[in-house]
Task: inverse folding
């Protein structure tokens, strides 16, 4: 018995070493572009190679921390994505409630349509959306863009929200019903507080997705002073040529930090049982 | 009805544009002078199928999807999830964090980082120089390969998470029994692991393919579809036709084809997964 065990253990150790080696190789190749970003942002004369800055400096950050480059686009992003997220979460919570609680003939087709929509390539409809927005005069407006962003994210938010809602036991809700609470009151006072972490995940996930979205604001917003960071950074380096890479790196870090922090906040909940709330449970 | 606001938004801003898309695709609408919008039947579609640039875009989209999503993200994600089960804790944590960071970063930041990585003066060539291997301007010589790698870098985390969850659900004693019976690593993978996670594989392939099909920002920011049209996938082609060449009708017809392919995948997905709702 001990012989078998010994063999297994040494095989385990070898397997561990081999796995560690292979993973470290992958880790390094994934890290290279990120390390470049960090180094370049601290380098007064950054170029395109990974190279530790000879004399680290915060000049790049200083240079981009102006209204025009950083504050206005970031504020635009916040307004655009914040309002779209709020709209998405409110609509998703309202829609998920009957879908989770009531079984009617329409529930199943509705949910299947939602799931179907979640998979559609939204990129494909940007050209007609542009045409439609020109016709109804919503083009180049923040609220029009926010409305579309909210809608694009809505199917997945409803699906995620419904799955979290399914996990809330019905007993407390029934108590509220007998006390004469209306459906909306029950949802707001009983169900949503019970699924607080779930609502948090939906909110943060929606916000992260919208914060990084490039194509929608790129198509629907035209005036420079309205552009969110996702588009302004593109115009920043889209003209190639005379780009100051260090400054672009510094701005990229500033622009990415909020979503990275938010992701860390929800990663434990998304982590193991992630599986996108059952949509991909398989 | 609490479901009304969501339904209204979905009808107005999603079903609306899709319906509009179906209509515009059959007209000769141009960006300038919307008055000259006539019904032209299937002309846009006939034009697409006869257009070399369209066929080029279809081929590039297939290559991009196959390389980056089916081979790249899917295989690498599975390999990472599998290796992580055998690896030591710190290595697992660090690798996981890096792969996920690449995924959470905004699309344009990822595009910018990989643009820098693949440029002639970039990091990849610096490494190749060190190894005395020939360097080249990747974005010019092999643009579709460069953007495919970029998509792997950015999108692998999703597969990794799906497969990690799937592998964690395989009962340990089955693998151990096979190990005691002397089944080699590859045999265990082929006869036990893969069959047990086949539903996750299906789901993951489907969702990866669908999201790769609609990648625009990454390619646009890295190469603008160029040089020439050598990285012009369907979304980029659609954009170019509609806005650079002002042919909204033609661009929309391409969009409709893209949407149809997406819908087909979507329906197959719903069927295969036999989703319970």
Result:
């Amino acid at each position: 018995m001990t012989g078998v065990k010994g063999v297994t253990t040494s095989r385990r150790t070898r397997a561990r070493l081999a796995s560690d080696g292979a993973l470290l190789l992958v880790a390094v190749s994934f890290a290279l572009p990120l390390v470049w970003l960090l180094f370049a942002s601290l380098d007064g004369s950054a170029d395109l190679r990974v190279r530790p800055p000879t004399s680290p400096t915060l000049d790049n950050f200083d240079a981009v921390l102006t209204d025009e480059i950083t504050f206005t686009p970031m504020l635009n992003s916040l307004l655009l994505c914040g309002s779209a997220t709020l709209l998405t979460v409110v609509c998703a919570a309202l829609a998920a409630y009957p879908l989770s609680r009531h079984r009617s003939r329409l529930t199943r087709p509705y949910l299947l349509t939602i799931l179907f929509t979640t998979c559609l390539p939204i990129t494909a409809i940007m050209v007609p959306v542009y045409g439609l927005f020109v016709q109804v005069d919503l083009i180049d407006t923040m609220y029009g863009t926010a409305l579309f962003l909210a809608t694009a994210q809505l199917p997945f938010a409803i699906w995620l929200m419904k799955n979290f809602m399914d996990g809330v036991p019905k007993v407390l809700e029934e108590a509220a019903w007998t006390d004469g609470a209306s459906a909306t009151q029950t949802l707001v006072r009983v169900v949503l507080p019970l699924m607080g972490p779930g609502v948090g995940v939906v909110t943060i996930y929606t916000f992260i997705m919208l914060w990084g979205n490039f194509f929608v604001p790129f198509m629907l917003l035209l005036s420079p002073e309205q552009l969110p960071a996702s588009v302004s950074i593109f115009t920043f380096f889209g003209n190639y040529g005379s780009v100051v890479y260090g400054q672009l790196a510094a701005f990229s870090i500033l622009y990415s930090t909020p979503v990275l922090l938010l992701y860390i906040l929800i990663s434990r909940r998304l982590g193991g049982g992630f599986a996108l709330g059952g949509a991909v449970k398989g | 009805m609490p479901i009304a606001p969501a339904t209204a938004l979905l009808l107005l801003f999603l079903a609306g544009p899709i319906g509009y898309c179906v209509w515009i695709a059959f007209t000769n609408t141009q960006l300038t002078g919307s008055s000259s919008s006539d019904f032209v039947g299937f002309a846009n579609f006939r034009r697409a199928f006869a257009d070399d640039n369209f066929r080029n875009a279809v081929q590039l989209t297939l290559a991009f999807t196959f390389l980056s999503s089916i081979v790249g993200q899917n295989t690498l994600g599975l390999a990472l999830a599998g290796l992580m089960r055998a690896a030591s804790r710190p290595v697992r944590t660090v690798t996981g964090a890096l792969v996920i960071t690449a995924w959470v970063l905004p699309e344009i930041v990822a595009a910018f980082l990989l643009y820098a990585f693949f440029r002639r003066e970039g990091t990849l060539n610096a490494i190749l120089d060190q190894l005395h291997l020939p360097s080249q301007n990747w974005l010019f010589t092999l643009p579709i390969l460069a953007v495919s790698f970029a998509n792997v870098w950015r999108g692998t985390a999703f597969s990794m998470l799906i497969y990690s969850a799937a592998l964690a659900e395989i009962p340990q004693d089955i693998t151990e029994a096979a190990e005691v019976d002397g089944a080699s690593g590859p045999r265990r993978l082929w006869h036990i692991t893969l069959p047990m996670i086949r539903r996750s594989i299906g789901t993951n392939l489907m969702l990866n393919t669908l999201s790769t099909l609609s990648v625009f920002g990454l390619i646009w920011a890295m190469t603008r579809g160029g040089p020439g049209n050598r990285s012009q996938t369907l979304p980029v082609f659609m954009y170019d036709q509609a806005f650079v060449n002002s042919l909204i009708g033609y661009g929309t017809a391409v969009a409709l084809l893209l949407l149809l392919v997406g819908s087909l995948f979507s329906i197959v997905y719903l069927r295969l997964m036999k989703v319970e709702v």
Chain A has a mean pLDDT of 85.
